[in-house]
Amino acid sequence: MPAKRNAKVVVTLGPSSATKETIKDLVLAGADVFRLNFSHGEQDDHRQRLDTIRQLEKELDQPIGILLDLQGPKLRVGTFYDDSINLSENDIFRLDLDERPGNEQRVNLPHPEIFACLKPDAELLLNDGRIRLKVTDAGADYANTIVITGGELSDRKGVNVPGVALPISALTTKDREDLEFGLSLGVDWVALSFVQRPEDVDEVRALVKDQASIMTKLEKPAAIQHLEAIIERSDSVMVARGDLGVEMLPEEVPRLQKRIVRACRRAGKPVVVATQMLESMISAPTPTRAETTDVATAVYDGVDAVMLSGETAVGDYPIEAVAIMHRIIYQTENDPYYQESVEALSRDPEPVSGDAICAAMGRVVEVMPIKVVITYTESGSTSLRAARERPRIPILCLTPWQTTARRMQLVWGVHATIAIAEDDAEKVSNVACRIAVAEGYAELGEHVVITAGMPFRIAGTTNLLRIVTVQEEHLQDEDT
Hints:
By secondary structure, the chain is of the alpha/beta class. The protein has helices at residues 20-29, 43-60, 112-115, 173-185, 198-208, 221-224, 227-233, 241-247, 253-267, 289-300, 310-313, 318-333, 336-343, 353-367, 381-388, 402-407, 425-438; strands at residues 8-12, 33-37, 65-69, 84-87, 92-96, 106-108, 123-126, 131-139, 142-149, 151-154, 159-160, 189-192, 213-218, 236-240, 271-274, 305-308, 370-376, 395-399, 414-418, 447-453, 462-469. Strand 12 (189-192), helix 5 and strand 13 (213-218) form a beta-alpha-beta unit. Helix 1 (20-29) packs parallel to helix 12, helix 7 crosses helix 9 and helix 10 packs across helix 12. The two termini are 30 Å apart.
């Protein structure tokens, strides 16, 4: 296994990474969480990949997280008589509800909700922003436009409406079916696309309940108006830069990425940076220097994870992409400036026992030669709180639940393992020291710090902080 690091790697599976051998190699190269992208492939494809991951989890004896990424609404134009057309600057072009194939003058746009929101001078972006149209007038079933930026437009290309919050649910019928399917298989995270308002997160929360954690994808500029409220309702956030970049100017995306990451850090919510991180590795065995710097910049900002998309789903070098991603993170985190960078954005603890205990843990780690922070947790909340402090040493999460261990694979600095629930502080200390030594985090005579909740086995009761020197008696297995 590769050397341990703090920031995690999320890997998208696809045709290039569908076999058990490849998925195993991806884990060995450094993958922590696998993304099943339901925008592509059939449910049976995703079931087979999930089953493979769970088999490997047992063989490798380590938890592996699985992220179900819902497609969300896809707004698209209809079809053309000749499959495609070419639009030129200043052309007049009409969008309407007429289902007949289109031509150089018009095309079907089967989304009346878009027409209801359009006003003169509004912009429409087609084909991932390559074509820009300005609305001259619009009604309930049409929009007349003038072409600002032309190009080729073919069947069923996507449509974006920048600056407009559309009255559309983030969950389509397909999403609801995929969500039910994924929850039945036991996915750990659900990524919600097309989020525009906090209520979109509430809608999926009502369906998911506590069966999985919710990751909100911030890919619509309209969502930024409600950034803090959306983060508060989410379990984690993804900065989906590709879709953000369609509806925003390219130069605005880095600033927005920084803002989202900082807001998540302050809220103590895991944050993932995604899209085009090592894009050139879809067809090349090494990334560009700009791409490696992009990854390192996110790591310096203290993100919880970085994600690979097409690089591993359809690329020619999926394993190499994960390996170089791992090495970039590892080298960055070993830069003396790194810790100073991630500590620059500290979070004030809330006046609750869990935050107070983990804030005290952070101070203990600074004062004493502690080797590892050990969090004993049912739900994972203790480990999340410890990770918010961004300590200089590893966080070893001990939990009796496989589901918790899998979800923690996304969280900065947390290395999760299964431990049988214990009844009192002494037993907890013994188990913690025994596992810390077995996992290579500490040796005899070294100090560890343990956080837990009392009474034990009750989620959300973090109130214990204990400094322990590892001794022989801690390592005696009581069952022998």
